[in-house]
């Protein structure tokens, strides 16, 4: 019986090694590529360059995917007319008409500018949860997360770290 077991294991190993050695490429399909239209020139900086540009708190949020404490953002209860931009690269991300009081402690929006070209969505499995992370498509800076519990018609709540944002006041 031991001889049969050894023979079976040896046969499986030989088959496994021979399949790894196969160098014939039988895949004749061309890989699909995607192109971006508005964010064709992503910003690439070293960590040192980012540290010189951002405050230590902004660096923690934007570059290390940190989260600011709830109810501490200057934009949490801020409702002036204008446009919210990425603090890392000044890309326009949200408008004041998309902002609402999410009662969650962070600035909340029900939509984004650019129809998905300015804010990337990434599956996030950290902290034992399944969430969707949102990052700036231009500089890859962490913005926050998007949830499907928004109170407006879109049903979305972009929960954004205020430290990842800047604001451009609307011209009168």
Explain what you see.
This protein has 172 residues and is of the alpha+beta class. It has a single domain (47-169), classed as Metal Binding Protein, Guanine Nucleotide Exchange Factor, Chain A, CATH 2.170.150.20. 19% of the residues lie in helices and 23% in strands. It has helices at 2-20, 47-53, 56-62, and strands spanning 82-86, 92-95, 99-100, 108-109, 119-124, 131-136, 142-147, 157-160, 165-169. The strands form two sheets. It has a six-stranded antiparallel sheet, with no helix packed on it. It has a three-stranded antiparallel sheet with strand order 2-1-9, with no helix packed on it. The protein is globular and about 40 Å long. The N and C termini lie far apart (89 Å). Residues 5-39 have low confidence and may be disordered.
Mean pLDDT: 82
CATH class: Mainly Beta
- Looking at the structure, the CATH topology is Metal Binding Protein, Guanine Nucleotide Exchange Factor, Chain A
Query: Main β-sheet, in a few words?
Result: 6 strands, antiparallel
Kindly report the name of the CATH homologous superfamily: Peptide methionine sulfoxide reductase
The structural domain count equals 1
| H/I helix tally | 3
Radius of gyration: 24 Å
Short précis:
The protein is an alpha+beta fold and 172 residues long.
Outline the secondary-structure elements:
Blueprint (H helix, E strand, L loop, with lengths): L1 H19 L26 H7 L2 H7 L19 E5 L5 E4 L3 E2 L7 E2 L9 E6 L6 E6 L5 E6 L9 E4 L4 E5 L3
Antiparallel strand pairs: 1-2, 1-9, 3-4, 4-8, 5-6, 6-7, 7-8
């Amino acid at each position: 019986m031991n001889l049969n077991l050894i023979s079976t294991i040896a046969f499986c190993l030989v088959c496994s090694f021979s399949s790894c050695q196969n160098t014939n490429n039988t895949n004749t399909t061309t890989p699909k590529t995607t192109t971006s239209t508005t964010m064709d020139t992503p910003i690439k900086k070293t960590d040192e360059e980012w540290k010189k540009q951002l405050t230590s708190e902004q660096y923690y949020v934007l570059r290390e995917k940190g989260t600011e404490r709830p109810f501490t953002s200057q934009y949490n209860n801020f409702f002036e007319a204008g446009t919210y931009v990425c603090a890392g690269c000044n890309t326009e991300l949200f408008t004041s008409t998309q902002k609402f009081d999410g009662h969650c402690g962070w600035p909340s929006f029900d939509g984004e500018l650019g129809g998905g070209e300015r804010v990337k969505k990434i599956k996030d499995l950290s902290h034992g949860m399944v969430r969707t992370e949102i990052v700036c498509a231009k500089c890859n800076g962490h913005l926050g997360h998007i949830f499907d519990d928004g109170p407006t018609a879109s049903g979305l709540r972009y929960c954004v770290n205020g430290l990842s944002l800047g604001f451009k006041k609307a011209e009168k």
